[in-house]
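Could someone model calcium ion with this protein?
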Amino acid sequence: MLNRKAALLIVLFLVTLVPLQIALAQERRHNCALAPVLEGNAVKFVREGSTEERCTGELVGPEYSGETETVLIRLDGLERQIGYLLRIEVEVIHARFLAARYFVGYGPDAGGVFNSVDDVIRPGETKQVRFEYYVAFGDSGNVLVTVSSISFRDTPAVLNYSVRASATALMDAITVTVKDSGGQIKSSIATDWGDTPNDLVQTASTGSGHLPQLRIDEVLELSGFLSQRFTQQGSRPAFYFSRDTVDVYTLKIERVPNSRLNVTVKPQDPTARLTVTIRTKDGFPINSTTGQAGEPVTVGMIITERMRDDTLLLEITMRELRSFSTGYSLSVRLVEPPPKPQLPPHMTLPMPESQVRSIVMGISVVIISAVIVSAVLGRRKRSRMYYAGW
Ligand SMILES: [Ca+2]
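Reply:
Sure, complex below.
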């Protein structure tokens, strides 16, 4: 009896899952896909199985009552998925009948929306929507663009649309240069990190963000980018999305007690305000400074004998920015310890040392005797005053 009940419950559970699975399968299905074609530092996207550089469609619905279509932008065809600025341009054209509402949005194909626009489109109108998305460290997978027409049988509308995409590489630390104190280049390393990790866990778990060892009197230099969510208003508004607000580098240093580590970061954008933090390998903050807008910011630390590890984390955080992205240049210098203070030359005393010692002892005896005598006299005086009151 119990088994029959359990079987019935399992069947009911599976039956309820079927519509959900169908809905998910429908959601994942896309109407058209754009695949990447590398052209040097830039990427163009073409319709899969074609050379056409766009996906197009018609939102006609059952009896002109609205419809949703999706376009997949494949990033998995790229050798390195992160570190690209992806531009998506969507055109919505009113084709027939009455005014309608349209929706255009994009996000990861696994689900969610990064940015979206919805507005009214009238007969004869064409609307253009521009999205820019920086594929930062931690972002992966493909991007899905959704275009919807919202209309009804009583107020029918037909809309056409086209979706184009392109991308350019925007990488952190393309070249890491180490110079000597005279400015001569000692080594120059090319990296392929794309975007630098934005927390210490990711830095530790990957090879990205690991800088070469810095020795005394050396200067390490690199440049990178930070970006954020931003909307540009105007006649052709653009919608930007990025999660690249922090870059974390791992640095090994030559441990010389009393040497000084100086870290300077200069933002390119005059509205960018940055914070630079030096942390221990496990994330404990040692020193942190926030700069003024557009101004370079420097943070330093003294290398002590107690310092057990030669690995430090350098964290660059965007505090404020009135645009989408800013470049920055990072300079790290390990300054040699200051010279030890010079002691004055050995002083010669005008009289023999034994004589000086006896004089010092004599003076000490006199001072101690004076202290004892004054203490005794003071006590007697206080006793007399005490009895005088009676
Ligand atoms: Ca970055």
